[in-house]
Design goal:
The complex is a heterodimer of chains A (about 200) and B (about 525). With about 200 residues, chain A is of the alpha/beta class. Chain A has helices spanning about 25-30, 75-80, 95-110, 135-145, 160-170, 190-195; strands spanning about 5, 10-15, 45-55, 55-65, 85-90, 115-125, 150. In chain B, helix 1 packs parallel to helix 10 (about 290-300) and helix 7 (about 220-225) packs across helix 9 (about 255-270). Chain B starts with 9 loop residues before the first strand and ends in a 34-residue tail after the last strand. Classes of the chains: A alpha/beta (about 200), B alpha+beta (about 525). Chain A: Pfam families: Ras (PF00071).
Chain lengths: ~200, ~525
């Protein structure tokens, strides 16, 4: 859930889509400005954070990657919990991946929160000569289902920053938290704290 | 997504079941660089450690109360195969399930995240919390403090608060001045003991409790301090969390002074361990089913492959040696691994269990199935009001003999409210648990606790009449909307599998959390 304070917005963003559609590559391009031609399946990256300014506020994205758990359709509810935004990624040169993207949208509508900002990303837009999914087809689908749509290329960086920027602009500003917030446990030596609890 | 053919087909380790212990093992093994496949027959994570919507919980409990059929114990594989398959059966972990709904209108099943089993609360200084921090799973979860602890007092029919720190003792209004001093002296003594123990071995300060005394029962130690029953009860059952009646001559599980002091120290160091957590106890947002999910995510991040909705039908054994080789899935696919970890609900076929140590089910059989620790009676209650006004979450202890004279076991009741996202707003969920010898004792323990703490509508009568009844009684008890009681078999599954690997080598330190284990570590 997006939480607000002092013009800072924290927003959990989840990535969904077929294996090989380029979810991790999009994040890598956005967060690190990198692109790897032969990116391996997502191992080792759990989440990233990136901050950007949109209009009046600074949005800090906490980006969760699927960690490969989508491969056999085994994402945990934990993944969707509290997500303020989602990018559903497909590969414009792969019709199946577009079909699967629609399934992920259904899944999000079932699991996610109703105010979630959803973006549909037609990735690998640099592969124009191998295009199988027209931009028009995707745009119509996105409009019908309340998503916004962009074609992106993690390789050329086309629209990558733009899609995150657009999400940041669309995030509800003063949205009351739908779910209660708890605390994240952060390690620190127990000794120091013991003194504070022993008032005398 | 539909027809899952799993690739690759050979792994270092296959783990079946995504319960908490199995998930910790999968995460630890993946972190140690092993190739791991993690399977679960259910469409959800967590197995017996999951948190489920109301209807899913009752149907899961009902389905797990039946033994699976164990026909076709072994069948030869087609010609040319070098292994035979051994059918796997499961044993029921739950029994004596009894579910009653008292609510006039049906409860919104999907708005509940109900825990099937413990551990339900954590001490802030618990080693399990250390494990979450060490493994990096802490970043996937949020927690809240349990607001307060109480001890049920049958004389007043009310709840006495458990002061868990010196400041709480000062502020407490239910204790007399004398009682405050007595409790304070125990806390001081324990602190003094550990201060001396923590410093150099040789100085032998006067306050250290003698080795001989440390081996004696803790109850006896408290008696010698001439503590009144009320204070003793708070220390033994609400702080040291003893299960059995410690005053019985033939106490089955008498807490040694040494262990009692350790538990007091654990409690003490839990208070204020985290800057934002004031009390000693923690509960995860969305229920404890988040824990296995967090460990599984951690495992996935480290390369573990996840397949839900995939039952394992049989184990594959080497034709000649009979030793474990792999598993046969419900999809018909055969997969191989060096080692296997099975959910403790499986009955491991004997020939395999006795096979050479290459197979882990060997040890999980011996440790997990033979060494069953007994039974736990569990209850879940749903109400629209708190046991204590203005308290959203709390732990209530009903010490031995507090409910009826023959009550040998302490009963713990955990109240959780909607601010932990486990139920619709305005409602409360209660988890009751007590160790027991058999279902009869277990049911008696929980049913007495339920009728002492709640107003139970007579079955069939609508909610509002019972509310009227409870208004007549002096203490306004929460009225039950829904209740379930069941008996669970306790199981254990632990064995050092990879003795040469560090158990969760330190991950990124807390200030590096944002980028997690990151790309720099990627191979």
């Amino acid at each position: 859930m997006a939480t607000i304070g002092h013009n800072n917005l924290n927003a959990k963003l989840v990535l969904l889509g077929d294996m090989g559609a380029g979810k991790s590559s999009l994040v890598l391009r956005f967060v690190k400005g990198q692109f790897l031609e032969f990116q391996e399946s997502t191992i080792g990256a759990a989440f990233f954070s990136q901050t950007l300014a949109a209009n009046d506020v600074t949005v800090k994205f906490e980006i969760w990657d699927t960690a490969g758990q989508e491969r056999y359709h085994s994402l945990a509810p934990m993944y969707y919990r509290g997500a303020a935004a989602a990018i559903i990624v497909y590969d414009i040169s792969n019709t199946d991946s577009f079909g699967r993207a629609k399934k992920w949208v259904q899944e999000l509508q079932k699991q996610g929160n109703p105010n979630m900002v959803m973006a549909l990303a037609g990735n690998k837009a640099d592969l124009e000569d191998r295009r199988k999914v027209t931009a028009e087809e995707a745009r119509v689908y996105a409009e019908e289902n309340g998503l916004f749509f962009m074609e992106t290329s993690a390789k050329t960086a086309l629209n990558v920053n733009d899609i995150f920027h657009e999400i940041a602009k669309k995030l509800p500003r003063a949205q009351p938290a739908q779910n209660p917030a708890g605390m994240v446990l952060v390690d620190r030596p127990p000794e120091g704290s013991r003194a504070t609890s022993c008032c005398s | 997504m539909e027809e899952a053919i799993i690739e690759p087909t050979t792994f270092d380790l296959i783990v079946v079941g995504t319960g908490l212990p199995e998930s910790v093992i999968a995460a630890a093994a993946s972190s140690a660089g092993k190739t791991v496949l993690h399977l679960d027959p259910n469409p959800f994570y967590g197995g017996h450690f999951s948190s489920l919507p109301l209807h899913d919980l009752t149907s899961f409990l009902a389905s797990q109360s039946q033994p699976s059929d164990a026909r076709c114990p072994s069948s030869p594989q087609p010609d040319g195969s070098d292994h035979t398959s051994v059918h796997l059966a499961t044993r029921p972990l739950y029994s004596a399930l009894n579910v009653t709904s008292y609510s006039a209108e049906p409860l919104e099943s999907r708005k509940f995240n109900l825990d099937l089993a413990g551990p339900r609360v954590f001490f802030c200084a618990d080693s399990a919390v250390d494990l979450m921090l060490k493994s990096g799973t802490n970043q996937y979860m949020e927690f809240k403090n349990v607001d307060a602890s109480f001890v049920f007092d049958k004389n007043s029919g009310g709840l006495n608060s458990v002061p868990d720190s010196r400041s709480a003792i000062f502020k407490d209004t239910s204790l007399s001045y004398r009682e405050k001093n007595q409790l304070m002296s125990v806390f001081k003594l324990v602190q003094g003991h550990f201060e001396v123990a923590g410093s150099a071995e040789s100085d032998g300060g006067g306050r250290r409790i003698s080795r001989e005394d440390l081996q004696r029962p803790f109850a006896e130690f408290l008696n010698r301090m001439q503590l009144p029953q009320k204070i003793k009860s708070i220390i033994l059952y609400a702080i040291a969390m003893a299960d059995y009646d410690q005053d019985l001559e033939a106490c089955k599980d008498a807490l040694k002074t040494e262990d009692g002091l350790d538990r007091l120290a654990l409690y003490h160091s839990s208070v204020g361990r985290f800057p934002t957590a004031l009390g000693a106890l923690l509960y995860p947002l969305y229920g404890q089913g988040e824990l296995p999910q967090a460990f599984c995510r951690r495992a996935a991040v480290k390369g573990c492959l996840y397949v839900l909705r995939m039952p394992v039908l049989a184990l594959l054994a080497d034709k000649d040696t009979g030793s474990y080789k792999g598993v046969k899935l419900a999809s018909g696919q055969e997969l191989f691994s060096h080692r296997l970890v099975l959910d403790p609900s499986f009955k491991v076929p004997l020939p395999l269990a006795n096979s050479p140590p290459a197979s882990l089910q060997n040890s999980s059989h011996v440790v997990g199935l033979r060494d069953v620790q007994g039974k736990v009676a569990r209850g879940i209650c749903i109400t629209r009001s708190s046991l204590k006004p203005n308290v959203s979450s709390c732990l209530v202890i009903c010490p031995p003999r507090s409910l009826y004279p023959e009550q040998v076991m302490a009963i713990r009741v955990l109240q959780i409210s909607s601010n932990l996202a486990v139920c619709p707003s305005g409602m409360f969920v209660f988890y009751l648990s007590a160790l027991c010898e058999d279902a009869v004792e277990g049911k008696q323990l929980l049913e007495t606790a339920i009728s002492s703490l709640f107003s139970v509508p007579t079955s069939g009568s609508p909610e509002d009449t019972s509310a009227e009844q409870s208004e007549n009684t002096e203490v306004l008890k929460p009225t039950l909307l829904w209740g379930a009681v069941y008996i669970q078999e306790l199981t254990m599954l632990f064995q050092k599998m990879y003795p040469d690997e560090e158990f969760f080598p330190n991950t990124a330190s807390s200030d590096q959390i944002e980028d997690d284990s990151g790309l720099d570590h990627e191979t």
